[in-house]
Model the fold of this input.
Amino acid sequence: MSTLAPPDFDYIVQLVHRRSAIVLEPGKEYLAESRLESVAREHGLASVTELVQRMRSGSLDAGDAVVDAMTTNETSFFRDAHPFNALRDTVLPELIEARRVARSITIWCGATSSGQEPYSVAMLIREHFPELRDWQVRIIATDISPSMLDRTRQGRYSQLEVNRGLPAPMLVKYFTRDGMHWVVAEDLRRMVSAQYMNLNERWPVMPPFDLVLLRNVLIYFDVPTKQAILGKVRQQLRRDGLLLLGGAETTMNLDANFERVPHGRSTWYRPTGA
Amino acid sequence: MTRSALVVDDSRAQRSMLRRLLSERGYDVSEAGDGSEGVERLSDMGAFDLCLVDWNMPNMDGLEFIKVVRENPDYERMQLVMVTSESEPAHIARALMNGADEYAIKPLTMDALVDKLAILGLEDD
Ligand SMILES: C[S@@+](CC[C@H](N)C(=O)[O-])C[C@H]1O[C@@H](n2cnc3c(N)ncnc32)[C@H](O)[C@@H]1O
Done:
């Protein structure tokens, strides 16, 4: 496979950064080439080089498809386990106590990828908090990738995907089989609404959130972008709301207006008064 | 601490694949070619921490094996995972009802195995 010429790769790096804030490190030519191959094919082009050249000359607008293809969508059910144990053991019980009167909980998954994360939350709620059945529980799942949002809406997973992190009793209880795939129960799909949102652009009007899961997405951004996003998350969170980041992410040294709140073996963040 | 695992599968290729994955996670692995051999292995060596068992095997199949194992309190703490190409929800439910702790559909990748071990509390991190 030919590798992208430096100016072509550079064009992709700039485009992806401008649109999504994702920083593609130098040396990722191979990654770009392999991920963009299907985009080139869909446009009837013989190579990624040809795709990039058409885009550079302005004769083809494939920016959305390129950004979509360049996002890393790796995810799994109950990823990292500890945050979900904390949700079950303390985070949700405390939140439910605090919302006894309002009887409403709103959760945001800010980089949903193919939907395993919001559905894990939904399953956990159904499994362990039957009293929430007649509350208003909303899980808003957003992403920049239209193809990932489609997958989240469909809630359809391959055999390999349901083998990852999903306890077998939950597979049997909350999924039905459809050929070689497994489909999430209608009841859970109704709890999750998938919406397009670019974290790097003006945010749509959203309700205040009780919990924000923004996991494994800040790692792709530069420091000023991370700071801008964390600042906006603070505005979106209720005063007693909590933010959860990915295992390798933290607000430390980025945003002094969050305090760490340990729950079990995971760390959550609460906005401080300011 | 080294953990022990028993792989019960009639396919030699499957056994060595699973042995390789488990060895990489630090397990001491023993093998059996069907359910009745599995039962023998248990009475010779005592309980293992983990047992991966196929469904369709000659002599004694995986479901029968699980039932036999679950009748013996000596093996109470052994985690039983069915690893099979049977993917009917009814099969999965039946294995769980009869005492399997987890269920994985073949092919089992390293990532999926590690996830299953974590679910069973067998990963220390
Ligand atoms: C690695 S996945 C994380 C999935 C899930 N949160 C998890 O932890 O398993 C990262 C996701 O971030 C999305 N993403 C990347 N840049 C984005 C942006 N600027 N706005 C919104 N989503 C973005 C990608 O499309 C991808 O689905």
